[in-house]
Structure formats: C-alpha cells, structure tokens
Write a structure and sequence with these properties.
heterodimer, A: 120 residues, alpha+beta, mini-chromosome maintenance (MCM) complex, domain 2, three-stranded antiparallel sheet, 3 helices, 34% strand, B: mainly alpha, Arp2/3 complex 21 kDa subunit ARPC3, elongated
C-alpha cells in the first residue's frame, strides 16, 4: 500500500465518519412509528399497534408485520429474500428494503410525513 | 519501400494483432471469473450475518483487468458482469440491475481515474476507493429507484465497511496478479 493509498483511504473514512451524525440526525429519534413506502405511496403506522400490512410491490405482494414494538418483512415474492432475512427492526432510522419490489420499511417515519406529502 | 522496412512493418502489425488477441483473451477470462464470483456471492448471503452485505468478490476480476490490460478492458469486464449476472439471476430488467449498474459505473470510473496517476496509487487504493464509490452510487441510485431517502441512513457505515472489504480485495488482487507469469 502506497502513501497516497493510505491518505485516500483515511480521507474517505473521515468523510464517512463526518457524515454519520448527519445520517443519524436525518433518521430522527422517533421510534414510535413505522413508514412503509411502496410504488403506490407511503403509509405511516404506529409501532406499538400490532398489525399485518400487505403492500403491493413491482413483482407482487410484500407482507409487513408489526408486532411487539418491532417490524419485519414476513413474506415477499422476490427471489433473494434479503428483506425477509434482515429480520425485525425497532431502533430509529433502521430500514428494511425489498428492492425488486420497490418497498422500504423504516422506523421513525412520522417526522418525514410532511416532506413525503409535498413530494408526492 | 525497402525489404527490411516492409519486414519490420509486418512484424509490427503481427505484434499488434498478438497484443489485441492477448487483451481479448485476458478480458474474456476475467469476465468469466467476474460472473462466477458474482453468482457465487449472490448465493452467499445465507451464511453472512448481515443479509445485504456483499464482499465485492467480482471486483477482484475488474481490479486484475485494470492492472493487467487497462481501463477499457476493466470497463468491459465490469459492464459484462452486471449484464450477464443480471441475465442469469433474472433481475436484468428490474431495479436491482439499475442499482448494480450505478455502482459498477462509479466504481470503474474511480478506479480508472486512480490508475491513470500511475504508481502513486496501488491496487489496494484503487479497490478501496472503488468500493466506497460503488456503495455511495448504489445508495444514491436506490434512493432514486425506491423514491425514498430512508436507506441513505445506512450509507456512512456501509462506506466504512466497503473501505475495509475493498482494501482486502485489492490485496488479494495484488497477490494474484503478482503470481501470474509475465508475458
């Protein structure tokens, strides 16, 4: 590894570390709601109310389950099932995405509702 | 034109053809390696603790192509890999390929840029910076494709992981390239 390699890697690492608090701030601290975004739109649900939601994705239905203060993708018609294998999430800013279906599930969506309402 | 000038011109043309054939053969072999590594990696998530984490094994072939042949072959290997792995895994027409393409273009672009500086940067630097660019471009593309910035929250941590994994892939590529017989 050359000196220039080390400087470049350190510079990228510092940039990522500086961006970290920004990402944490953008994620917010609200762990009481869950935002489910799909091709048809966005819905925000309470994390403390157990529910099962069927979201229409690009390929088919993605089943999202809220239980015991956490949310998970219970079932998806995608081929690799990365979303299902991610398991339950509950901390602010945590995200599960089913990319082939265009569905994202994130904790703390309530503070972004206004922004989404303007965009969509 | 004298006889000796004609002969040297013929030798030069033959050498050019041989070089071109050599570049094509290396590029094709590395494309095959990249596809196998890419498909192998797509079967790996079941054994990794974080399901969306990728080691970037296919980048090994792209780094080797850049070191052995040059930027055009590296771009060919990278683009061919995205196309063929997308075709084999049935995701070619979907958002997965759009995101993979964004990552591949950014990664090859950064690596070729660093390689153009000559020996100042090594394969480790190319691969680490290429992996970081790959991750940033993929998150940006995912935000556009999914119409949601929620995933960007994961970007800083993913860049740090990509730096470590990219440096590892660069070291491995350097080891492999240094053991290949010189032509």
């Amino acid at each position: 590894m050359t000196r220039a390699d080390r400087i470049l890697i350190a510079a990228i690492a510092v940039a990522a570390l500086l961006a970290w608090p920004l990402a944490a701030w953008a994620a917010g601290s609200d762990a009481s709601s869950v935002e489910i975004a799909g091709p048809a739109g966005v819905s925000v649900l309470r994390l403390d109310a157990d529910a099962t939601v069927a979201v229409d994705g690009h390929l088919g239905t993605v089943r999202v389950r809220i239980e015991d203060g956490s949310v998970l993708v219970a079932d998806s018609c995608c081929s690799n099932h990365v979303c299902v294998r991610t398991g339950p999430i509950s901390s602010p800013g945590s995200v599960v995405a089913c990319v082939p279906n265009g569905v994202t599930v994130s904790i703390g969506g309530s503070d972004r509702v206004g922004l989404d309402a303007r965009i969509r | 034109m004298s006889g000796s000038t004609l002969a040297s011109a013929e030798v030069a043309v033959a050498r050019t053809f041989a070089d071109s054939a050599h570049r094509t053969a290396i590029g094709a072999a590395l494309l095959a390696c990249a596809c196998v590594l890419g498909l192998l990696e797509s079967a790996l998530p079941a054994v990794l603790p974080v399901p969306w984490l990728r080691l970037g094994l296919a980048n090994l072939a792209v780094v080797a192509a850049l070191a052995l042949v040059g930027p055009r072959t590296a771009a060919f290997v990278s683009a061919g890999r995205v196309l063929l792995v997308g075709l084999a895994s049935g995701t070619l027409a979907g958002p997965v390929t759009v995101i993979a393409s964004a990552g591949a273009i950014a990664s090859v672009g950064v690596m070729c840029l660093l390689a153009s500086y000559g020996p100042r940067y090594s394969m480790v630097g190319w691969s680490a910076a290429g992996s970081a660019a790959h991750v940033v471009a993929q998150f940006a593309a995912a935000a556009v494709v999914l119409h949601s910035g929620a995933l960007l929250v994961l970007a800083p941590a993913s860049v740090l992981v990509a730096l470590v994994l990219g440096a590892g892939i660069g070291l491995l590529a350097r080891m492999i390239v240094s053991r290949l017989p010189s032509r």
